[in-house]
Design brief:
The chain is mainly α. Strands 1-2 form a two-stranded antiparallel ribbon. It has six helices and two strands. The two termini are 18 Å apart. α3 crosses α6. It has two domains: 40 residues, no CATH class; 78 residues, no CATH class. A hairpin with a 3-residue loop joins β1 and β2. 51% of the residues lie in helices and 9% in strands.
Length: 119
């Protein structure tokens, strides 16, 4: 979470250069109220590695900037490095790699829908 104290003024100026409104910046730096926080959901064990992998790929979004920024999808070229960094078991990578990738793509599509809707 961004805080006014934790971010330099230049960070806020950079956000403005990219077209982020003052209201949106204020929303980002204002702590959310408990009723605004998302509910917690249980994570099934068979999805554990896919969620970890998705989180580790958070900085690997391909984007397009036009009249507004759009999220196009994850950069799959970074996927092997993310798997190595997370120490995804080799047997999971080899025997169930297609399933892990399918789960990652479901998470990606769901995130894209939310991220692109928020813009």
């Amino acid at each position: 979470m961004l805080t006014q104290q934790g971010a330099a003024d230049e960070d806020f100026q950079d956000l403005k250069k990219f077209g982020v409104s003052d209201e949106e910046i204020e929303r980002l730096i204002t702590p959310s109220r408990p009723e605004q926080r998302p509910a917690e959901y249980p994570l099934w064990p068979e999805h554990f590695h896919a969620v970890l992998l998705f989180i580790s790929m958070a900085t690997q979004w391909r984007t397009q900037i036009g009249d507004r920024m759009s999220y196009l999808g994850l950069d799959y070229a970074a996927l092997p490095a993310a798997e190595d960094r997370l120490s995804v078991p080799p047997e999971l990578r080899n025997s169930d790699r297609a399933s892990l990738f399918d789960q990652l793509r479901v998470l990606e599509r769901s995130a894209m829908a939310v991220l692109n809707e928020a813009r």
